[in-house]
């Protein structure tokens, strides 16, 4: 959803969060695996995009 709102590909967001290049989420490596779990903080994403949280919610609903 974050990638769609940003008009970027999912891989852009995944790698950006993994490498701490995007300041709105965290990537947690699964124990015993090469896979990651992701958390995107809606407040931080809205701030990064320069929009209100209500606007972010509206964009997520569409």
Model description:
50% of the residues lie in helices and 16% in strands. With 62 residues, it is α+β, with helices and mostly antiparallel strands.
Descriptors for this entry?
2 strands; 50% helix; two-stranded antiparallel ribbon; elongated; alpha+beta
Describe the SSE topology:
Elements: H1 2-6, H2 10-18, E1 25-29, E2 36-40, H3 42-49, H4 53-61
Antiparallel strand pairs: 1-2
Task: Write a brief structural summary.
The chain has 62 residues and is an alpha+beta fold. 50% of the residues lie in helices and 16% in strands.
User: Total helix count?
Assistant: 4
Give the DSSP E fraction (strand runs of 2 or more residues). Answer: 15-25%
The radius of gyration over CA amounts to 12 Å
* Biggest sheet overview: 2 strands, antiparallel
**Helix percentage:** 40-55%
